[in-house]
Amino acid sequence: MAEPASPPEEPARPAFEGVKAVEGNGSYVGLTYDKLDITASVDRVRSPKAGAVVLFIGTTRDNFEGKSVTTLEYTTYVPLALRSLSAIVSSLKSTVNPSLHAISIIHRLGIVPIGEDSIVISLSTSHRTEGWRIAEECLELVKEKVEIWKREWFVDGGIWRANRDGAKGVTETVSSSEAEIPVELLEQADR
Amino acid sequence: MSARCLELVHSNIFKILQCKPDLQTNQYSNLLAGTLVTAMADTFKVLYFAAASTYTGKAEDSIPGPMPVSKLFAHLEDKYPGFRKKVLTSCALSVNLDYVDLIEDGEMEIQNGDEVGIIPPVSSG
């Protein structure tokens, strides 16, 4: 076994520049290595038919259960993540939620400095109650399904985090400790 | 060129002409060249993400196909000892962006030119 690795001095080069997005019909999903623009996310979903805009911002924490996190990075499978994000907004915008006017999800990739934003979800609804509910449902679906992975670096190495152990395609039972895989190799090819 | 390759090329030419009837000759040649490269490939691509990429030290591999879905994890275990127990056991598999079930779709053949994704448990947010 190799010694515990430390985060790369130079972050992996972004796989693309700007935003990779799929949009249309009141829906927007995007991935970017850039800082997230909250105002743009809110403006994107404004609608004269709406009485409420709900905004959720996920930020990067400096600890995991009390243990100091020094660096945090996200990686993804771009076409599959965009497909899954699109499927989520389509399902939320279906007839189940007729008062959802517009919705936007954008997730940041690469190294995200502690305290900065990793995900912004914004949506507009006729009334606030369904807005809160749909925003929560949306976040849960994203965390469960979208092909984005978070690696947390501690002083003594890194761990690929799992939102839910073996959420997909599990062939054997895995314990939670096995689902967190220590990083033993410094080289991380980011896509 | 195998019968399957020819079939692939024919169906792609048909699709190209259907979607883009006003295509310029050079654009058409480029698309056709891409199609031919895929159809004549003698390997399929396996993409590694997160823990899978860390374990292999790579972003991807090219593996000679065709190969049934059920054989892939054993093949990768031979290539990277310990990979199955430490990583693959909790991973899902996508073929050309569609998830496949390791057991139900076990007989399905991964074709040369296909893109296979090794998908560890996700952790966005």
UniProtKB/TrEMBL annotation, chain A:
GO BP annotations, alphabetical order: Mo-molybdopterin cofactor biosynthetic process
InterPro entries linked: MoaE_sf (IPR036563), Mopterin_biosynth_MoaE (IPR003448)
Source superkingdom: Eukaryota
Signal peptide range: none
PANTHER family according to UniProt: MOLYBDOPTERIN SYNTHASE RELATED
Protein's UniProt name: Uncharacterized protein
TrEMBL record, chain B:
GO CC annotation: molybdopterin adenylyltransferase complex; molybdopterin synthase complex
Modified-residue entries (1-thioglycine), positions: G125
Record keywords, A-Z: Cytoplasm, Molybdenum cofactor biosynthesis, Nucleotide-binding, Phosphoprotein
UniProt entry tagged with the keyword Cell division: no
GO molecular function, one term: nucleotide binding
Subunit: Heterotetramer; composed of 2 small (MOCS2A) and 2 large (MOCS2B) subunits.
Record-given protein name: Molybdopterin synthase sulfur carrier subunit
